[in-house]
Design goal:
264 residues, 7 helices, Alpha-Beta Plaits, single chain, alpha+beta
Amino acid sequence: MKFIVYALVLGNLLMLGWLYQHRNAYQEPRISATQLPASTEPLVLLRERGKLAPAIAPAEIPAELSEQTELSSPAPTPAPVSEPMDGATTERIPPDTGSVPALETPMPATDHSPTRICQTIGPFTERQRAEAFVAEASGLGSTAAVRAAHIEEPSGYWVYLPSMSRTQAQDVVHDFEKKGVKDDFLGRQNFISLGVFTDKRSAEVRAQTITALGYTPQLEPRFLSREVYWVDLEESSDEPVSAARWDALMAEHTGIRRQPLTCE
């Protein structure tokens, strides 16, 4: 049995080697195609005539038929413009506007107008003195005017006993007469005036004397309203009055001062 298997394997190998050596002997013979002349019409089958008919163009078309065809043929329909799909981004190219120069913004004009300087000088106790100062200031190119005002000035110190009932006030006056107090005065509102003094020290001495008699006097400063005059002056920052000239003007008048004023 083993020898039979070996014999079959050996036979197959021998058969395979013989076929490999004679493989070229079984190639199909090549058929050489003969080239036909150009004037020879090809052979067309009946079933192929319908397929080849549209490909064959007529030799000549009469001119009249050509013109009729052009006149009767409809105008070509323009192709529809496709709409952009949802979500698609359509990019448009901006038109070329050319190089346009940027407009220059005009700079605001600088205001070189002079600044107004206003001040007031005073107080002058007399109008004539204020007017004399205006004349001097006007000569320097400044605009000046006199303005009247009222001020409260201390006029003394008043010592008195506050208002009381009429009976009490009369009893105090009789007591002052017994004790030698003079220069007292009973007023309409039942207050007792003990004198007005120009200096505060004299008023304090009078108050201490009345206090020693068992009373409680009051010491109160007194004021007097008086009319004075101020000079309102305006000058320009381009031509201001010099500091030396101001010192000379102020030295000619005593008791006055300079202070700024709002220009209106």
